[in-house]
Design a protein that fits this description.
The protein is mainly alpha-helical. It has a domain at 11-92. The protein is built from 6 helices and no strands. It has helices at residues 6-20, 25-96, 104-108, 122-127, 131-137, 146-153. It is flat and about 120 Å long. The N and C termini lie far apart (96 Å). Keywords: Cell inner membrane, Cell membrane, Membrane, Protein transport, Translocation, Transmembrane, Transmembrane helix, Transport. It is found in: Cell membrane; Membrane. Belongs to the TatB family. One of its GO terms (cellular component) is TAT protein transport complex.
């Protein structure tokens, strides 16, 4: 990069003072300063964009490596599960091969009973909760009309 020392800056300032003149020099210096600042910000933005693109490429490489590793693990797990399932099926068929013939004792046994759901009496269940717990939890124990509820909670006059 260009190296500016004090002597070079003094020479540039003297030439600018002679060429531009003392009246316009402050305005020109301000304009040059703004332009140099814009150029520095532009260079910083370009550097940041290049760094972001490099990081993005690295992340994409890592993502692709991770996906291939995940596919490999999935494939090995799938093959192991298939092998285990096939060995289980073969062992199960060997074990159940002798059980497939009908025997005389099984024909004498009664068929299993069908499932019947238990009928719950909600009144019995409701009365099983203690009254003190219902009052504490705020459970209504009896139905009250709207007018009765208003009368109950209306402040007493007098």
């Amino acid at each position: 990069m260009i190296d500016f020392g004090f002597d070079k800056l003094a020479l540039i300032g003297a030439v600018a003072l002679i060429v531009i003149g003392p009246e316009k020099l402050p305005r020109v210096a301000r304009t040059v300063g703004h332009m140099v600042g814009k150029a520095q910000r532009y260079v910083a933005d370009v550097k940041a964009e290049v760094n972001r693109s490099i990081e993005l490429e690295e992340l994409q490489k890592m993502k692709s490596q991770f996906e291939t590793a995940a596919r490999d693990v999935e494939q090995t797990v799938r093959t192991e599960v298939n092998d285990a399932a096939s060995s289980f099926e073969s062992n199960w068929s060997e074990v159940t091969a002798g059980l497939s013939a009908p025997s005389d004792s099984s024909s004498l046994a009664e068929p299993p009973l069908a499932y019947q759901p238990v009928r719950k009496n909600w009144r019995v269940k409701r009365s099983a909760t203690p009254q003190w717990y219902k009052q504490r939890a705020g459970v209504r124990t009896h139905v009250q009309s709207g007018a009765a509820r208003v009368r109950r909670f209306r402040p007493r006059a007098g």
